[in-house]
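User: Fold this; tokens only.

Assistant: Input:
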Amino acid sequence: STLLEATKCQFSTFVSSHRSPVSAQSLFSILPEFDNPLQCKMLRECVDTRLCLKTEKAADLSGLKFECFRYLDAEVSRAYFDPLVRFVIAGSDPIQWFLDRLIALFKQGLPSSVDNFREVFMADITSKCFKKSFRSFLTPAIKTFCLPTACGGIQSRGTDTASLFAQTVIQYCRFAKLSLIVLFLDLTSAFASLRRFFVCNSPRPDDRTILNICVKMGVPPELFRAILGAVSEGGALDFFELPPEIRTIFQRLVSKSAFVFEGVPDIFAYDKGSSAGTPFADILFIDIMCRIIGIIYEELRASDMLYQFPFQPSSLITQEEICSMQCAHDCSY
């Protein structure tokens, strides 16, 4: 009943002015002409994305769940997202999109110990819906920029594709009697520890602060100059071929983050991490990783240390063939 009341409260204004339900297809056939083509496309993505939202997820601060948007009538959905899209394009993003609430969930043990609680950030659900739809404007540039073997944050490029490519390389090296080294890195809290100024053109700290970060990470001193040089070239986002208006909106949506905690009157701003519950977490991570791998790739090519395998990633099993498999155990590798 609480969810029902929250839904009625949130959408009562729109429902009262849009009585006759229409399908999304018929709706967009009668859309008025927009002065800004980006506005029409962005609104279309918002209305379409709501149909793909996952169910049975936690409610946000207003008590709303994804189901409230997924089963919303197309016309009402358009009326809801239309002013939000106009605000974003005009550069006036809703403030609640950047303000999360930190809550502590009790796990087990003694309630007197903070170690027995799990911190959870609750974000505005409208913000999540919009950001999910905005991903469609980013993925084409990512596919163009990153290496063909990269996966994560890219549609139809799962870890199974990367695993197949790695196994192909291993088997080829065995057959050709070549030496092979596999480097496996497991980054602790990768999304939470990401420094956003490495991705966006947000104000970056001075060289001393960057060097302190390198020291904490155990980076050898002989690499400090190269790291400072790479950072001075700009954020990883500068190397993507994004339209200027898309780049500007994306930087705004990922550069501002703050949270409140119940019982504490202060607002806490933070610039490390990909912010709470954002659909951009994997996008930010693959942006910076593509930049890092790109630098390594160019260094190896300049030193004539790249080995050209006699096959291309596209010659491997396709994603459609992978999805058609009924079972694939680890032992099959």
